[in-house]
């Protein structure tokens, strides 16, 4: 399987490397890094001052060269009535997205016993693995340690591991 990482907006090289490393280690797949893309026009919601996650998924699916494609952006994303999302993917789809915007915060109780850089890198890796898992047909998992566990706050992202639990692994690998 080939996964194409599609940077959207100004994304540091370190974030691209973290995403690539996580995908290779969990899914044993090939990973390419696409040329950086501009923010999709029309994706900004003026009232919310946020960006529609669906527009980024559509962009990744349209221009990505992989069987699975994931947009990564520093922009703050939302989906429908949710206040924000760390990422979004459609089950069995070929496009997905994560936002690094809210992964840098510790305001909702994330870990504080490691450097901010380490914590941020862990969160990026977990979210990339999580969203690609959805494109492979995985739904949210009840196991709090599984990377596929639903995590609406960084505290919950921090609790889970970067890997799939045994049940989720058997479904996709």
Give the SSE layout.
Elements: E1 2-7, H1 13-27, E2 30-33, E3 44-45, E4 50-52, H2 53-63, E5 68-73, E6 77-78, E7 87-89, E8 95-99, H3 116-135, H4 154-159, H5 166-172
Parallel strand pairs: 1-2, 1-5, 4-6, 5-8
Antiparallel strand pairs: 3-4, 7-8
Helix pairs in contact: 1-3
The structural class is alpha/beta
Overall radius of gyration: 15 Å
Strands ordered across the widest β-sheet: 2-1-5-8-7
**Which overall shape is indicated by the principal axes computed on the Cα atoms?**
globular
Order of SSEs: EHEEEHEEEEHHH
The low-confidence parts are none
Question: How many H/I helical runs?
Answer: 5
What characterizes the major β-sheet? 5 strands, mixed
Portion in beta strands: 15-25%
Number of E strands: 8
Cα distance, first to last residue?
11 Å
Helix content: 25-40%
The protein's oligomeric status is single chain
Mean pLDDT: 94
Describe what is shown at a glance:
The chain has helices spanning 13-27, 53-63, 116-135, 154-159, 166-172; strands at 2-7, 30-33, 44-45, 50-52, 68-73, 77-78, 87-89, 95-99. By secondary structure, it is of the alpha/beta class.
Short key terms for the protein model shown above:
single chain; 173 residues; alpha/beta; 5-stranded mixed beta sheet; globular
Could you explain the architecture of this structure?
The structure is a single chain. With 173 residues, the chain is α/β, with parallel strands linked by helices. Helices cover 34% and strands 18% of the residues. It has 5 helices and 8 strands, in the order E-H-E-E-E-H-E-E-E-E-H-H-H. The chain has helices at 13-27, 53-63, 116-135, 154-159, 166-172; strands spanning 2-7, 30-33, 44-45, 50-52, 68-73, 77-78, 87-89, 95-99. The strands form 2 sheets. A 5-stranded mixed sheet has the order 2-1-5-8-7, with helices on both faces. A hairpin with a 5-residue loop joins strand 7 (87-89) and strand 8. Helix 1 (13-27) crosses helix 3 (116-135). The radius of gyration is 15 Å and the shape is globular. The chain starts with a strand and ends with a helix. The model has no long low-confidence stretch (mean pLDDT 94).
